[in-house]
């Protein structure tokens, strides 16, 4: 059976959302990153980098959440798009999320919640970048249902968690009606609700 090593993190959420969409059986192995379990020799043997999530299928373990999404989607046939242009767009969104949205939103989380020494200038800097990212995503989505058109894909799953958490980061979507509709559409999915329930259990 597939094993997913993770915790209640943004990147773990992505993989869980896809596993629940595909309805694959898996064993969830919690790694309490707040208490340093990612640094234990046992987990470093699974991922020497000491990061979650990690998806293991037999002896093969894969890291990096968007890479896991792409592999699972290719194997299952779920969450991909048909025509070459849409596929290129999907892959581009995965890279954009990993290189731009994730790091900048993550910096806001760090400077607002995790940093031992506050740095208001850094927080303001990353808030400004995140707001520009929201404007970009709002414009790119437009009136489409999803980021690759009418098909819900792993591109949407990759982009969803940080936007779902926007209020916790002090960000607003008041001028992003397209994104709000998109968010609510994904939040209403059974697989997403199932993921939320699991996250509540992890956090208790």
Itemize the secondary structure elements and their pairings.
Blueprint: E1 2-6, H1 10-22, E2 26-30, H2 41-46, E3 54-57, E4 60-63, H3 65-76, H4 84-114, H5 120-141, H6 154-164, H7 177-187, H8 190-202
Parallel strand pairs: 1-2
Antiparallel strand pairs: 1-3, 3-4
Helix pairs in contact: 1-3, 1-6, 1-8, 4-5, 4-6
Task: Give a verbal description of the structure.
By secondary structure, this protein is an alpha+beta fold. It has 2 domains: 89 residues, Glutaredoxin (3-Layer(aba) Sandwich); 106 residues, Glutathione S-transferase Yfyf (Class Pi), Chain A, domain 2, CATH 1.20.1050. Helices cover 58% and strands 9% of the residues. The protein contains 8 helices and 4 strands. A 4-stranded mixed sheet has the order 2-1-3-4, with helices on one face. Helix 1 runs parallel beside helix 3 and helix 4 packs parallel to helix 6. The relative contact order is 0.14.
**Biggest sheet statistics:** 4 strands, mixed
Taken in chain order, the helices and strands follow as: EHEHEEHHHHHH
Please give the domain count: 2
The helix count comes to 8
Averaging pLDDT over every residue, what do you get?
Answer: 95
The CATH architecture of the largest domain can be given as Up-down Bundle
| Strand line-up across the major sheet | 2-1-3-4
Give the distance, in angstroms, between the N- and C-terminal Cα atoms: 26 Å
Radius of gyration: 17 Å
- The backbone outline, from C-alpha atoms, is globular
At the first level of CATH, the class of the largest domain is Mainly Alpha
Helix content: 55-70%
Question: In terms of per-residue confidence, which ranges show pLDDT below 50 for 5 or more consecutive residues?
Answer: none
Strand % is 5-15%
**In total, how many beta strands?**
4
């Amino acid at each position: 059976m597939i094993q997913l090593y993770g915790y209640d993190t943004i990147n773990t959420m992505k993989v869980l959302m896809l596993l629940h969409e595909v309805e694959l059986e898996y064993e969830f192995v919690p790694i309490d990153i707040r208490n340093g379990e990612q640094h234990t020799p046992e987990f470093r043997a699974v991922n020497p980098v000491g990061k979650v999530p990690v998806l293991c299928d037999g002896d093969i373990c894969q890291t990096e959440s968007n890479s896991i999404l792409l592999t699972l989607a290719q194997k299952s046939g779920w969450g991909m798009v048909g025509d070459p242009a849409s596929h290129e767009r999907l892959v581009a969104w995965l890279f954009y999320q990993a290189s731009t949205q994730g790091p900048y939103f993550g910096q806001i989380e760090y400077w607002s919640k995790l940093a031992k020494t506050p740095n208001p200038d850094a927080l303001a800097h990353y808030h400004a970048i995140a707001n520009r990212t929201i404007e970009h995503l709002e414009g790119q989505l437009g009136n489409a249902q999803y980021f690759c058109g009418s098909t819900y894909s792993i591109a949407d799953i990759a982009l969803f968690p940080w936007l779902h958490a926007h209020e916790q980061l002090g960000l607003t979507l008041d001028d992003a009606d397209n994104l709000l509709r998109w968010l609510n559409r994904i939040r209403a999915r059974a697989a997403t609700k199932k993921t939320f329930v699991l996250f509540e259990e992890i956090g208790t």
